[in-house]
Fold:
Amino acid sequence: MKKLKLIVFSAGTLLLLLYVFIESVNLNPLYIEGALFWAAVISAYLLVFALFRFGEFTFSKLGDMVNGEKPFNYVPQRKFPRMVKILIIVPWAFLAVMLLISSPLVSWGAYRDQLGESEYKEFSADVQAVDMSQVPIVDQRLAYNLADKKLGEKPSLGSQVHLGEPTIQMVNGRLIWVVPLQHSGFFKWITNLSGSAGYITVSATDLNDVDYVENYKIKLQPNGYLLHNLTRNVRFTAAPFTGITDYSFELDESGQPYWVVTTYRNRRGFALPEATGVILVNASTGEKQAYPLSEVPDWVDRVQPESFVLNQINNQGRYVHGIFNFADKDKFKTSEGDNIVYNNGECYLFTGLTSVGQDESAIGFMMVDMVTKQPIRYQINGATEKLGMSSAQGKVQHLGYTASFPLIINLDGQPTYFMTLKDKAGLVKQYAFVSVVNYSSVGVGESIGEAMRDYAQVLRKGGSSIAFEQMGEPESILGKIERIAFEQADAALSYKMILQEAPDRIFIADSALSEELALTQPGDRVELQFIETGTGIVDVTAFDNLEFIQKK
Structure:
């Protein structure tokens, strides 16, 4: 009996330790996973102890089992003592009490107030005019595809690694997506214990700016093995009793990759998680440093998990007048989708707000600082992002393009959705501007400048206008025409040109820009002014054929 008892407890303890290691369990009972863990462990150990202490197991012989006997029987010698029953009940009672405390029925005020008081601002006064040469035109999916294409240029590397999740960030004034390379399997890891071969950066503003950086190894990874697994490594070396979540891959100013791991605590029982700081994990060496919110390094863009922020916004709207607001008075919620945006170098989560029951109409927008969690609210009535996307797609429905999730920008104080239009292969084909206030006002074009001109023309018909200074500073170029052709779309006629001096760009000029365009031929020397977009397709703002000057 004692030998059986030893075997059962030893095997159970071994399985328990294996479970803790594999699942990287938070052992703090003030978090629900920790409370459930300890309740189950305490109950299991006490139950097994009581079974052996207050009863006896008898085992049947093989022949008896063949004849239908049970393999073993348990004969209780006496009842379980009350103290054992109490000790088993206590952790489950604690769990029940904490769940009750966590309920909005008990603490709805904490749910409503967790985000904090929003600062109300005028959209035109706070959101700065966007330099269109820096507007992000590459979303996460496209960044992944471009990084995958870059990885495909190195066949030997592509067989060893796969792409991680792209993270958008501002690095030394450049808005880029950073994509870590991760081991593609166990044997790839075991033969490269020093780490996978670097990461790929994809410019968020230039489709052609994709770089592979091989100077840094990625040793710790979300899908890693043993203690090279990011979660497991952080849990057992830095945060055994701390809530950790939201592992984002970021670069410091030198290009060194880090995993930014958010630490958090619960404000009410097991509910209302609140970010308390970060653990910065050097992805190459595994070195770690914990920082409270007030001391997070400047290069870290994101501390607040998006899920935390969105839940807090929705809780503020759901419990705006308490838990028994059955008439839904003043209730609001986030619209379908959100965006990470940068304003004056700071990282924000930007999402639309809609009234409960009015999903197609925006009542405003919320911008939340992703480090400090300071919320800013803009009161703007208009269309939701989803409606803006549908309106843009309707303008090009004959082409079958789909719109990316829009970015809200400020054009002369007017809130405007900006988005890319992609074909079925996910390639950017056109750009679109949609008015937030009047989503029927849509401008599209093959370049950002062309789309803006189309948008401005639509607004002028409605009695409004946009200054073209919003497009950025014009540049000039002297060159010789390599190829030129015209294209007519509806009533608009435009000319497309390639210069010998800039073979990687397509210059697009509206026919109304100059009468000389219709007479221009390959070989003519021209002077162009244009707006750089970083896409390879640029919009011409001034055109002069220098051949006609010589003939005068």
Q: What stands out?
A: The chain has a mean pLDDT of 85. The longest strand covers residues 475-489. The radius of gyration is 31 Å. The longest helix spans residues 2-23.
